[in-house]
Amino acid sequence: MRGEQITSPSSQNDFVLLDLISLEELQEIQDSFAETFDVYSLITDIHGEPITEPSNINKVCQIIRSTPEGLKRCRKSDMVLGSMAADNLRPAYQKCLSCGFIDASAPIIVKDKHIANWQISHKSIGVNRERLIEYSKIIGVQADLLLDVFEDNENATTEEFLKALDFLWIIASNISHRGYSNLQLTKQLEFQKSFEKALKESEQKYRMLFNRMKSPFAIMEVIRSQQIQFYDGYILEVNPSFEDLTGLHANALEGRTITEIFPLTYAIFQDLISKVSNSAQPEKFEIYVPDIGKYLEGMFFIPWNNYLAVIFSDITDRKISEEKIARNEKRLDLLVSQIPAIIWTTDQELYINSIEGSALSVIGLEGNRQSNITLDNFFQGSKTKADVTQKHKEVLKSQNSEFELFWKDHFFSCRLEPLFDTEQIVTGVIGICYDTTEIKEAEIQLNAYQNDLRSLTRELSLAEERVRRKIATLLHDDVGHNLVALKRDIQKAMKNNKMTDVSNEPLYHSLAQVNKIIQSTRELTFELSSPVLYDLGLIAAIDNLGEEIFNPLNICFNIYGLEKCIVIDQDVEVLLFQMIRELFYNVIKHADADMVTLYSGVENNNLWLSVVDNGKGFHDEKIFSEKKGFGLFSIRERLKYYRGSLHVKSTIGKGTRAILTIPVENCQEWDGNKNNDY
Fold first, then answer.
1. Where along the chain do its domains lie?
2. DSSP state at residue 496
3. What is the pLDDT of residues 234-264, one digit of tens each?
4. Model-level pTM greater than 0.90?
5. What string of DSSP letters covers 21-49?
6. Which residues contact 632 (CB under 8 A, 6 or more apart)?
7. I want to staple 273 with a disulfide (CB 3.0 to 4.6 A). Which of 231, 345, 364, 491 is the partner?
8. Domain 339-435 indexed as CATH 3.30.450.20
């Protein structure tokens, strides 16, 4: 409908005449006017388009308008005449620009808007028969058709026509006023309809919101007693969430006061209602309601005069969580304060914003959760091989970091980790320094004990070797020489007996026994202490040892690398020889190998010896921690005394490689002249 468009804010001026008055009523007024004043009458829009049907039609005009050219000229004349009337805000008249009849137009204006023109035309004034004949040629119609219907009225005057025009203006003005009244009425009706519709929709939305609200909600009327300053709320309406909160149906809630519903908490609610009623300002609250065993937060407010509304939120779970968090934080604070460590946090700019821990007292500081100091200031006076600031910067890139610190006569072991927010974005660094002074001192003492033990083990090994050497020397120099002398005496006696025909059979037996004792003595001498080691050096002694041990067992032994030994401390030579001998015996006992090779060399002033077999191998992950690896463990510990090392690599089915490495200062090849200290 056009009326609906009028009431729209964007189209309040978008209306036409028929929106304000019905066509039937308009046609009836027009017909009556035309008949009374015997004029041709027509109401058009501002563009000259007819709104009504012509009244008291001028048959000449009817024929003219039936032609294209005539219709075009008539509409142009109507529009021009209507514009004149609208511009002047009053009726205007002129000769028709089409045929020549006298025409008049009264504007219909509503709310300062020109919406229509009421056109009238006299049937004879201004035109004669000669004009009709001439005009018929212009519009292309037979002149007889116009002349036959022309009503020539010589008594008609312009003054009478203008009187009719004045009356037309009165009627047109009346139509304008009626139209404006209709417009206002239409707007009012439409506004009322729109308001009622909006009100209904608002009520529906309110009701839907009221019923679907997750938060308990109630509307109440204020009850007050000025004598005793008593305030209460009379429940008018509650939503389903309020029912769930109290465990009561709406029928059991509505019509009761809030203090009746919450008798154990009435004093708090009365105070809240009093404050809101007196100040007319909303009042927030957070309380524990023992009536329902829940924590509630909410707000009282005044929706309209003498009424209150209250909205609740059940925060029981949150409060329980907060209490647990508070207890945990208290425990954590207690724990942190007792930990023998220093704990700190930084922001992304690496400013320290909290410092905790009992170890702070060790360095003369106190805990502070609002420190805001720089790392340089905090770690001032500490000693470390690490760049503390750079370590913190690395952690900001989500990389954990560890370093050692010596700080005011105390050792600390430090660890840094990134701090994350809820979106896993790094917001800073958390660091912890454990006071490891006692551990460090224990380690130092333990290392000293270990060094003493290694030294003792070395001395024992060397002492054992010295004893072995002395025994071997005694066997070689005394026992061996005496046995050789005895052998010569027996041989001499046998020679003498041969000359005297005395039987040498007993002497032959004694000589065999002496030879056997000499051989055993020689073997025992080599087993106790290899003379080759002292006479020819380490490499020659190892070569001799390998042949003596492996050849009888049909194990192929090869030696590669150094052709001559290098000049090293004889104590070291003795220990290396003992270690190689122990490795050789390990091969015999465990490897089930048929080939053993020793490699040797010097690299960067380090002598290295490698024993390689092609035996069955073993799992080498825990070789130094297992009981069966005690021999290897002993070798490794003895080497540590000389800053040496032992590395064992073994694979099942592929044999074993044991590498001994020991630093040798001022390495030189041996020239063959060796001084023995034993």
1. 2-188, 213-319, 339-435, 532-678
2. H
3. 888 888 888 888 888 888 888 888 888 888 9
4. no
5. S-HHHHHHHHHHHHHHHT-EEEEE-TTS-
6. 586, 623, 624, 646, 648, 658
7. 231
8. yes
